[in-house]
Amino acid sequence: MLESEQRIEHLLVIEDNQGKRTIALEAATCSIGRDSTNSIVLYSHLVSRQHAILVRLTMPETATYMFRIMDGNLQGKPSANGLIVNGRRCFSHDLQPGDVIMFGGDVRVRYYATTNQSDVIFLTSAKAEDVSGFLANLINPFQLLVSSDPNFENSHEAALVRLASFPELTSNPILEIDMAGNIMYLNPAAVMEFPGIREARLQHPILAGLVAKAQNSKEEVFVREVEIANKFFEQSVHYIAESDLIRSYVVDVSDRKLVEAALKKAHNELEIRVEERTAELRKINEQLRGEIVERQRAEEALRESEERLHAILDNSTALIYVKDLQGRYILVNAWYGILFHLDREEFKGKTDYDLFPKEIADVLRVNDHKVQEAKSPLDWEEVVLQDDGLHTYLSIKFPLYDATGVPYATCGISTDITERKQAEVALRSSVATNRALLDAIPDSIFRIGKDGIFVNFKAAKENNLPMPASEFIGKHLYEVLPTEVAQPVMNCVEKALSTGEVQIFESQLLVNNNLLDYEFRIAVSAEDEVVAIVRDITERKQAEADIRSALEKEKELGELKSRFVTMASHEFRTPLATILSSTELIEHYSHKCSEEKKLTHLQRIQASVKQMSGLLNDVLLLGKAEAGKLEFNPTSLDVTKFCRELVEEMALTVSNHITFCTPIQGLTTYMDDKLLRHILSNLLSNAIKYSPQGGTVHFDLVCEQDKAVFQIKDQGIGIPVADQDKLFNSFHRASNVGTISGTGLGLAIVKKSVDLHGGKITVQSEVGASTTFTVTIPLTN
Predict the structure, then answer these.
(1) To 10 degrees, the CA torsion angle through 665, 666, 667, 668?
(2) Residue 6 gets which letter from DSSP?
């Protein structure tokens, strides 16, 4: 036990890229690493995202705890660079005051412990950079631990082995007591969940009655529920006879209890609803009995209304009649009299020959004979003469039989279908017209069911589909179209059927190894069916792409003109101003100037003229390249000698140091020396110009697989990433050049010159650090 009952505070002093800081350890388990989600974040790119785990270990029979550090994350994955504690690599270590832990090789962490709270406050708030002297004087509180039991060391080591295992890491409380009620072990979760358990001992609800139940129970394992402060815990109790210990595993089941209460409430509510439903069924049963009574009354009313049926027939617009076997009318409905201007009684005894022309009466009579011979109902169309002309009737005729089964009459019901016949003629005409229109449409047309099956088709004159249109019938969309096309088409079918709106979808299909563009127009044509019009829009899409390309080129040309005007107005202004000022000084003050001063002004004029001449030459050279008229005249050239001479020439006029390095003594190949001079002189002058703070420009030449590789690296301002894709555009300059003069033409000329050699150029740059251009040109004989 500690000689004093003061609490031990645990500290970590961290030194990383963010400086030095002190952290007081509180949590039972801490994660350490580079990622911001860790409990303790270390600022170094050499540290793993989850580098190590710090576990708090409770020391038996005390309220004191220590910390064990373990390499890797909670899933057991080790860190990249491991742990080094006190100069030795290890996978786990129980921390002792003064231990030094290295993470990733550049983060240093020291562990200290103290019982003085003022020391903790000073260290966690101190602003001094060096607290080494203060830390060195801290007293190790663990030295105050004395053994009250000669077997303490062995039990302490065994406890540490046990505590470093699963119980220390689990989030559920685990407790152990002996049969005398002494608490032998609490894991960190138990200490956190039941903070006053050591003082309460067997009076605490979670331990109350355990010893007596373990002594009296015949079972070694039993489970009980304990309620503490409105929280419910399920306690699994194990009596370990070998160690004479009682071990408890505790799980918070408060949420489960709430769910059980909710289920019980729902069950009660269901019982109530069942009773209510039973009452409703009784009520419905009574209603059914009433409905049966009402039905019986309706049947009586039906019998009473049979006589009224005849009156209803008289109000029918159909012709209803009965003829005897000789064709004489026995009965007609009222519509007969209205239609033929005869009283219904005047029809009795008359035949069709008395009412209609002979040619019509002959047809009607023949039809009557057919019904009598067929002895079953027949239907056909008949033409009847009326006041306004011939009308077509759909007639249904059937024989009437007496009680002995002998036919005695013929009954007929005729409906005027003249308007329908006219509509059918119009419809046939419309169908023919629609067929002609469909044939004139150059698109393929398909009928598709709601299930995605092709029902019918009308093929285009030129079949530009993956297969003949006739092969689509009976197949699903996914069988004839690629998934990436079939899926959106199926979506359009479903949306058209649900909304009734026309759906338009564009996609591409591979036909005869050519990728063609298609437009799908899908509209509802019937219930659960759509019509899909498939049109080849490849030419239209190509035309649209050409128009967009032309617009982009026109836009680029406009921007190019704008950049040229801006560059020219800026780059010509400075040398022109120099020429103007020098000529004015010579004109007005030549009598006062010395010859040396006059020579200086003349040299300025000459330099300005050369600058303007060089700018114009660059513009003309770029214009030739853009027009495809830049000449490419390769000749035999000693590239190594050429590079050395170029570096010597440029070194005479610049203050920067240029180093040329190559392992090749003599490299003779065919290149255009003028274009090669444009390439290398522009890159070298840029490297010098954009290194305002000086520094060395490195120029390397090597050979790689029949290719000459020129590499120029500076220590200048660098090129922003956003500008690197536009570097070789005419008149484009990086956004960070500031007041450094330039035209934006040099790299465009370099790119054209490299292309003429069949080579390529790449750039790697870091803002504020360096830029490296690499030019690769094939070696030719």
Answers:
(1) 180
(2) P
CB atoms within 10 A of CB 594: 8
Mean pLDDT, the chain, whole residue set:
79
Cα–Cα distance list, 24 to 8, 39, 107, 133, 619 (Å):
11, 12, 18, 19, 68
Single pTM value for the model: 0.31
* Residue-by-residue DSSP string for 504-534: EEEEEEEETTEEEEEEEEEEEEETTEEEEEE
Q: Tell the residue number behind the tokens 């001063």, with chain if given.
A: 597
Q: How far apart are CA 646 and CA 638, in angstroms?
A: 12
Of 302-306, 312-316, 467-471, 613-617, least confident by mean pLDDT is 613-617
- On whether the CB atoms of residues 318 and 330 are closer than 8 A, the answer is no
Q: Which segments of 59-203 are extended strands (E)?
A: 65-71, 83-85, 88-90, 92-94, 100-103, 107-114, 174-178, 183-186
Q: Is the dihedral of CA 414, 420, 422, 427 positive or negative?
A: negative
For residue 44, name the pLDDT band (cuts at 50, 70, 90): very high
Q: Dihedral sign for Cα 314, 315, 316, 318, please.
A: positive
Instruction: Retrieve residue 414's tokens.
Output: 């005729």
Instruction: Name the pLDDT band for 716 (thresholds 50, 70, 90).
Output: confident
Between β-strands 52-58 and 454-458, what pairing exists: parallel, antiparallel or unpaired?
unpaired
| CA 715/CA 722 separation, integer angstroms | 20
Residue with tokens 């003069």: 741
> What stretches of 37-172 show up as alpha helix (H) in DSSP?
117-125, 132-136, 152-163, 166-169
**Do 396 and 374 form a contact (C-beta atoms < 8 A)?**
no
pLDDT number for residue 14: 93
Q: Which residues pair with 457 in a beta bridge?
A: 446
- Cβ–Cβ < 8 Å for 412, 317: no
Q: Using the CB atoms, write b or e for 222-251: b if 16+ within 10 Å.
A: eeeebeeeeebbebebebeeeeebbbbbbe
Q: Which of 615, 662, 625, 670 is nearest to 643 (CA)?
A: 662
Q: How far apart, in whole angstroms, are the C-alpha atoms of residue 57 and residue 722?
A: 53
Alpha carbons 564 and 631: distance in angstroms, whole number: 24
Strands 770-778 and 760-766: antiparallel
C-alpha span between 644 and 633 (Å, rounded): 22
Higher pLDDT, 419 or 574: 419
Task: Report the SS3 class of residue 726.
Answer: coil
Binning pLDDT at 50, 70 and 90, where does residue 709 land?
Answer: very high
Q: Can you tell me the distance from the alpha carbon of 764 to that of 550, in angstroms, rounded to the nearest whole number?
A: 32
Q: Please check the confidence at residue 774 and state whether its pLDDT lies above 90.
A: yes
- The Cα 452–Cα 662 span in angstroms is 69
Return the exposure string of 698-716: e unless at least 16 CB atoms fall within 10 Å of the residue's CB, then b.
bbbbeeeeeebebbbbbbb
Token duo for residue 195: 């903070």
H-run or E-run covering 643: helix 639-651
